[in-house]
Amino acid sequence: YMFHGGTNFAYWSGADYKDQYKPVTTSYDYDAPLSEAGDPTEKLFAIRTVISKFQPLPVGPMPPATPKYAYGWVALRKVSACPEGCTAPAWHCSTGQHPPLSLQYAELLDVLDVLCPSGPIQSQFPLTFEALKQAHGFVVYHTELPWDVLDPATLGAPPHSICDRGYVMLQKEYQGTLERDGQTTLNVTGRAGDTLDMLLENMGRISFGANTSDFKGLLGNISLNSRPLSNWLIYPLAIDTAVQQGWPHTALPESSSGGRVGPAFYTGTFETPGIAWDTFVKFPGWRKGLLWINGFNLGRYWTCRGPQQTLFVPGSVLHVGRPNTITVLELEEAPPTPLLLFLDRPLYNGTLGRSTTATE
Fold first, then answer.
1. How many C-beta neighbours within 10 Å does residue 266 have?
2. What share of the chain in percent tops pLDDT 90?
3. Spatial CA neighbour of 236 closest among 210, 261, 271, 201
4. Do the beta carbons of residue 314 and residue 324 sit within 8 Å?
């Protein structure tokens, strides 16, 4: 199907529609003759052998595979602030006065002023991505509970109105996920005035067929025990712009709570040993999110669903002689010890629902 298995970097993975919405994986290497990294495979040589029986082959050797490197484990940490009088980012500071790096992160709801510098849009009812002129990525919908909910009440959306995944937080505590063609209700309790936030993820637009008018965001009213909620503040997020400008490595804020469940940013750095070769990154114990290296959005991982278990990292996005910055947005739940593993080979064929480990 594919001659060269390329990569759907950033938000370009798109989606199919076959009886239900089916988002495409970040890798587009469907057992391609030329791999995702551009390397010849056994399939390519087999095709070449067959063609040689009918046509003369090009003169000259086959270009070799590019070198790969297993950079190993990288711990994700918060970059500590410089001591008083030092204004350089932590990884450039030469004072030697930095305290040890601590394991920290920033919850997404705590940094909306960074991710949406223009501020929220007020609306009586939710607006779609299209109405907000938000082509890709994420939008936060924020409101408050209008009455006390002492007994569990049903928070829900009409059918086909969650496009494509909604991560629900009450008083900034992660409650669960609502999903297109999946779960569309959650039971919640709270008090009048408690904050309700829903982070909506656009997982890719349907790219062919009869359903290409694929609106994103909240396409209907969110209700509590069938009573519509209103008075929304809507935050179109410009995450890529912030990351490309150096956030959060230049100014990572303190997190307001200590949990590791729900949408949050994790950061780290690593250095290459004098080379910048292609590599593949694995997410042991992580669930779903996105990865940036040096501000470049490498795409989406979803290890708990598979089949893809690694993301391709071209050597061209890596630095030599200075640290490479890593930013991860984990949407559901990070592992107790947030680590990434850089390998010299891809892992594409994880079985649906299989638990991922750090042993491969």
1. 25
2. 74
3. 201
4. no
134: which 2 tokens? 């938000």
Q: Which domain holds residue 323?
A: 72-80+240-343
Q: Check pLDDT > 50 for residue 255.
A: no
DSSP state at residue 24: P
Q: Determine, yes or no, domain membership for 285.
A: yes
Query: Tokens representing 72?
Result: 């190993």
Residue range 297-331, pLDDT digits in tens: 999 999 989 899 999 999 999 999 999 999 999 99
pLDDT of 296: 98
Q: What is the CATH number of the domain that holds 172?
A: 2.60.120.260
- Rounded CA-CA distance 114/336 in Å is 26
The pTM of the full predicted model, rounded to 2 decimals, is: 0.88
Helix then strand then coil, % of the chain, to nearest 5: 10, 35, 55
Report pLDDT for 154: 97
In a domain, 254, yes or no: yes
One domain, residues 301 and 259: yes
Residue-level length of the chain = 360
Whether residue 322 sits in one domain with residue 254: yes
pLDDT of residue 106: 84
Residue 222 sits in the same domain as residue 255:
no
The 3 state secondary structure assigned to 258-314 is CCCECCEEEEEEECCCCCCCEEEEECCCCCEEEEEECCEEEEEEECCCCCCCEEEEC
| Number of separate domains in the chain | 2
How far apart, in Å, are the Cα atoms of 240 and each of 138, 215, 290?
11, 21, 11
Q: What is the b/e burial string over 122-145, where b = at least 16 CB atoms within 10 angstroms of the residue's CB?
A: ebeebbbbeebebeebbbbbbbeb
Q: Do 259 and 231 fall into the same domain? A: no
